[in-house]
Amino acid sequence: MTKAEVISEIADKTGIEKSDVAATVEAFFKVVKDSMAEGNNIYVRGFGSFVNKKRAKKVARNISKNTSIIIDEHYIPSFKPSKTFVAKIKNSKKIKETVVS
Q1: H-type helices in 1-101, by residue range?
Q2: What is the pLDDT of residues 51-61, one digit of tens each?
Q3: Within 13 Å, how many C-alpha atoms sit on residue 65's CB side?
Q4: C-alpha distances in angstroms, 19 versus 13, 23, 29, 84, 100?
Q5: 74-81 and 48-55 strand pairing
Q6: Strand order through the sheet with 42-44
Q7: pLDDT band, residue 95 (cuts 50/70/90)
Q8: Which of 14, 36, 39, 86 yields a CA-CA distance of 20 to 30 A from 55?
């Protein structure tokens, strides 16, 4: 599902115009990106958490030049779904049908 499809579905279910829904969705994404860039985590109860994960410093290999390079410690964005979200996916009959097929 693409962002445009999500916007269309929200507009259909709520009766709000697509342009307003698109602006809201874009604003949500901007808030998430800006907050995480400032080092803040975002917790949405019943949905999940957007958190910054720390990656340790490590030595990696450049295979083409056969040299080692050092990758400094850094942070990456991560999403951790809530228990209710995970339970809903696990109990989804549609997904189970897809997997069995």
Answers
A1: 3-14, 18-37, 83-90, 93-100
A2: 999 999 999 99
A3: 6
A4: 14, 6, 15, 31, 39
A5: antiparallel
A6: 42-44, 48-55, 74-81
A7: confident
A8: 86
Dihedral over alpha carbons 67, 71, 76, 81 (to 10 degrees):
70
Mean pLDDT on 2-31: 95
Which amino acid appears at position 31 of this protein?
Answer: V
Residue 54, token pair as written in the block: 């720390």
The sign of the torsion formed by the CA atoms of 21, 89, 50, 57 equals: negative
| Contacting residues for 44 by C-beta, under 8 A, at least 6 apart | 50, 82
> Token pair of 3, please?
């962002």
Contact by Cβ (8 Å): 57, 73: yes
Total residue count of the chain as it appears in this document:
101
